[in-house]
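Subgroup meeting minutes
Present: P.N., E.W., G.H.
Scribe: E.W.

1. P.N. recapped why we're keeping a running log of single-chain structure predictions: easier to compare across weeks, and new members can see raw inputs and outputs side by side.
2. G.H. added today's entry (263 aa).
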Amino acid sequence: MDYDFLYDVAEGVATVTFNRPDVLNALTFTVYAQFRDLMENLRYDDRVKVVVLTGAGKAFCSGGDVYDIIGELLKMDVKGHLDFTRMTGAVVANMRLLDKPIIAALNGTTAGAGAVIALASDLRIASERAKIRFLFTNVGLTGADMGAAYLLPRLVGMGHALEILYFGDAILPDHAERIGLVNKVVAHDDLLPTAQAWAARLAAGPAQALAMTKRMVNNEWSMDLLSAIEAEAQAQALMLMGEDHRLFFEAFREKVQPTFVGR
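Output recorded in log:
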């Protein structure tokens, strides 16, 4: 399929590059829809074990295009607005439902919907040039957009989340790392090599174990402790019967590295 972004698959890693550098990779209705559908379709693509997201040029993604989206939305009725906001929410829902690791490599401006896409990823690596802004309130909208009010407090805590969503100020890489908004900050030239190295390591890992880990982290957010412990007991019992766990044991016995098969 042809996309309005770059898409490549190699050695189990799918790399998505938002590719409108002249407008800081701002999203259009079409890009939103294509990306939403890709995140769903990847559930069924066994070639892909890990996803890396990044942007062309000076930005990761600056959010919705002011003219192509905001200007057009002002002409729509309530149903048109709700169709749009539900579509953007489905982007995040499909990212979280994808049982494969998603790594966001933040190469520059990461704002609005771009910041939420980064937030919805499993891991975030930031270039020293990255700037993150949840700027919804700055344009007269609620900071609760695309699941940001759900995800952000769980990542950085309530106080930091409200500060970020209230003010919409730029968050520089060192501060983002300090509050847990990104996992790692690297030199700009090291960004993609680092993200691809992480992706390669995960792609070579036990796919079912990684999938179950992501699924359980998602599911347990709404559980009490005893329910979570029981859910983990059932999940781990399944994994103990898996082929990858058996391969680990055999490799350990033979004093070699295991080669996982994803079962």
